[in-house]
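Hi U.,

Before I forget, here's the chain from the pilot set. I'm dumping it here mostly so it's searchable later in email.
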Amino acid sequence: MRERPSIKTIVLAGAGIMGASMGQIFAKYGYDVILYDIMQEAIDKGKDLISINQRSMVEQGFCTEEESQGVLGRISFSMDKTAFAKADFVIEAIVERMEVKKSFWSEVSRLVADDVVITSNTSGLSISEMATSVHLPHRFAGMHWVNPPHIVPLVEIISGAETDPETLEIIREVALSLHRKPVMVKGDPKGFVLNRLQFAVLRESLHIVQSGYATMEDVDSVMKYGLGMRYSCIGPFETVDIGGLDTFFRVASYLFADLSAVKEVPELLANPYNNGDYGVKTGKGFYDYSGGRAAKVVEKRDKDFLNVAQCLFKDL
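Structure:
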């Protein structure tokens, strides 16, 4: 397989939020990037998103205008599948549906050279199942980035049942070359690590609000100004060590049994979903984003993330 030093051209499938953002990072660190999509509208949106992100990076001091122009110059766009024949490394970031991804890989894995590592940015679908449609599955693995990937450093690398250890090492080296923080996930669990933790928090958050213990706003405040601040510096196991295993054991002995263990999606999440209220993308979710508020919320998030990232990247 092509080793990290010989990887020059990255082909990203899907020019949406994740694909466009990932493309920026690869271009920032000198890779040539081809963003592929089947829709011109998606490509146009991807171009706009990259421009917005780059402008924000310049304004926040993460790069100069000259460096930003260099990034833009290394990114091209294509609706032609022959682009995959040019790839030294491939990431798929298309719609999160197993049947769509399997159909994509059944075709594209045969367009890519046999010695090229190919990866999926799925948030939690089985890599092993997806690999059943992949030509030469030993060179296939999960490479899960976190939104927005041009700011958040974490990358989960997930092994499928047939993934070769060499494949995983190449992906890890690619992530390190981008100054990302790679985490190796074994056993191909649903949701991997990040989303298992994220949805455990979400389930308890929904339970707290539905039980009337706190409002959505206050739960968000607890995360932002308490747990979120703590966990941006130390993880859960480090927290217990510092706080004392004896204390956490005693609390766990009475609290674990009282935490939510529901298996169905709670009504607090199901009802807005069924009403077509998907959050920022539709102008309404748990909160109201009408009147241009959606763009301001995302802009504020990115600026806040960049401020936090400046601290985190010092350790990478």
